[in-house]
Write a structure and sequence with these properties.
Radius of gyration: 49 Å
CATH class of the largest domain: Mainly Beta
Number of strands: 9
CATH superfamily of the largest domain: Resuscitation-promoting factor rpfb
CATH topology of the largest domain: Resuscitation-promoting factor rpfb fold
Number of helices: 10
Number of domains: 3
């Protein structure tokens, strides 16, 4: 009798073990929906019946700008969206007037879709232009291209974030120079005298007035030369502050077109060329209008122009 009870007890324990093992295997390999349905049958639970016990609610859904109203028995904003057939993923941001776990009547649910792209964009790198040489007059200059410029290439990886179809953020995450730009080199040849090429006397009326006193000219010519150089340049043969240059502020283009070998900053040469112009009949009203008008107002018109 004792042995029989022992065998029955052993068989009962073994049976429980086998049932437990089969339960584990079933849970591992049976889809959750089937298990759920089985549980519903076993425990007499029907999810549709549960939903029927939830009051119908009116919800307004704004899905990427498309607004619709719906009636639903869902219990939360997310389940409402799923039940209503909306596509929901980790690319969506959901905002609602209801809390996350409960759906209120007349709730507003906003769904915003976000997408991220990584784009590679090719940019041209501009080349710089290097000028060699100098010229006081562009019209009298010659230019030659010593080296042609070549554009460089840069690739930028750009991260872009879109809300729906609207770009809301952009960030350059990497820039790679594929090819460096090569500079353009242009050589200019033309009149290129500088103030440093003559003796540095600066604003020195005493020196230049004394020089004029010793040249072969009439007293009237000397008086006009002294007056004009004073008010044009301050008696500064190296004057180089603007377009006009030298003691009498000549236009470099006019000067070098007529005297290509003469240094425009050489005060003695300017005095010589100005005197030649006056004696050849040049009208100082046209060459030095403001200063000559001032001279006429002070001393009267030059005798040979009266």
């Amino acid at each position: 009798m004792g042995k029989r009870r022992f065998f029955v007890f052993t068989a009962y324990i073994l049976g429980l073990f086998v049932l437990n093992f089969l339960s584990i295997i079933y849970n591992a390999y049976t889809p959750s929906t089937e298990r759920s349905n089985l549980l519903d049958l076993v425990y007499k639970v029907d999810t549709e019946e549960i939903k029927e016990g939830i009051p119908v609610k009116l919800v307004t859904v704004n899905y990427d700008g498309v607004v619709k109203k719906h009636l639903t028995r869902s219990y939360s904003p997310v389940t409402a969206l799923i039940d209503l057939g909306y596509s929901i993923s980790n690319k969506n941001r959901i905002v609602s007037t209801s809390p996350i776990s409960k759906l209120y009547n007349n709730s507003y649910i906003l769904v915003q879709s976000y997408t991220t792209t990584i784009d590679e964009i090719v940019y041209s790198i501009p080349y710089e232009t290097i000028i060699k040489g100098n010229s006081l007059c562009q019209m009298l200059s010659e230019s030659k291209t010593e080296q042609s410029g070549v554009l460089g290439l840069m690739v930028k990886r750009v991260k872009r974030i879109y809300q729906g179809n609207d770009l809301i953020a952009e960030e350059v995450i990497e820039s790679i120079v594929k090819k460096e730009a090569r500079a353009e080199i242009i050589v200019i040849k033309g009149p290129d005298d500088t103030p440093d090429s003559v003796p540095q006397r600066g604003f020195n009326c005493d020196y230049w007035h004394a020089y004029v006193d010793n040249i072969n000219a009439t007293d009237e010519e000397k008086k006009w030369l002294k007056f004009t150089m004073k008010w044009e340049s301050g008696c500064n043969a190296e004057r180089n502050s603007g377009f006009y240059k030298g003691l009498f502020q000549w236009s470099p283009c006019i000067w070098y077109a007529q005297y290509p070998k003469d240094n425009i900053f050489d005060g003695e040469l300017q005095i010589k060329r100005v005197l030649e112009k006056l004696r050849a009949g040049a009208n100082p009203h046209q060459m030095w209008p403001a200063v000559h008008d001032k001279y006429v107002a002070t001393y009267g018109e030059l005798s040979w122009l009266q």
